[in-house]
Design brief:
This protein has 348 residues and is α/β, with parallel strands linked by helices. The protein is built from 11 helices and 16 strands. A 7-stranded mixed β-sheet has the order 6-5-4-7-10-15-16, sandwiched between helices. The protein has a 4-stranded mixed β-sheet with strand order 11-8-9-14, covered by helices on one side. A 3-stranded antiparallel β-sheet has the order 1-2-3. The radius of gyration is 20 Å and the shape is globular.
Length: 348
Amino acid sequence: MRIVDWSDGPEAAVVLLDQRALPSRTEYLQLTTVDGVVDAVRTLAVRGAPNLGVTGAFGAALAAHRHPGDPATARAEAERVARARPTAVPLALGVRRALARLADGPAAVLAEARAVAVEGVRVNAAATTRAADLLEARCPARPIRLLTVCNTGELACGEGGSALGAALRLHERGALGEVLACETRPLLQGARLTIWELARAGVPHRLCVDSAGPAALATGRVDAVVVGADRIAANGDVANKIGTYMLACAAAHAGVPFVVVAPEETIDPGTATGAGIVVEERGADEVLGFGGVATTLPGTPVFNPAFDVTPFDLLTAVVTEDRVWSSGGDPGERREDGSPTTPAAVRR
């Protein structure tokens, strides 16, 4: 699928699959202005940390093409894309990586943006293979029943996906029992997008309301939880879609492995702990109704964080393209010399 792309067409444009229309319609946006890119990011027409990184890079390329003789304006326009959502690391990284070629002209900025997209395919392949290997090692007794939240497949991460990509790897190996997908309120990315991707791939799946996830863990219906990440602090604390923290607490209580799959660039060494992660709060309209139908009293005050932060000690591991980063809270993990792991990166 074309999720994030570029069109030279009659006018340079960033091309996005509009994820707000799925699963009922497949529609594409041709964005010829930076304003359009910013709006698409803020309204979740495009989403998922890795794909936001690619969108940021192409947004910088669009700014460079629209202001070819004015690098200062091009840079300022591109930085607006970088600030469109505050929590996910890759968005700003994609913008700034592409802008590093601004002195070489618009074509060079576009070439770097395309390189960001290509690199994502390699990253996803490595991370999902590593995660699938870990899940098989942790759950060897039967086809694995996974629980996930939000959407971490191709729609969010590009070809190969991240957490959902690990599930697809297990499916290819004949090691997957089913995926139980939380609906992911308030915008239903799990119900609308994850289920759509699983159905397209022929993967056995079921849907549950968010609050049923902990019950599934408590009653032995899940062998492992696998999720993505938008930002990971230097100590391993993970910001991910709201609802992740409650699943991590329930998994820890039930003794079920909890694995985060994300690109290495999601780790932010400049943020010491999860307490320093800025969590985006979104508009009240997302909670007051759905599909144009009011679901509560008009004017009701709303708390609508897009993400929550899960402490590293609740995780079994963070898996990237380069490593398995295991929590010191798991005494079963050992280094090659036999000593227990601590909250630090463990290369495998």
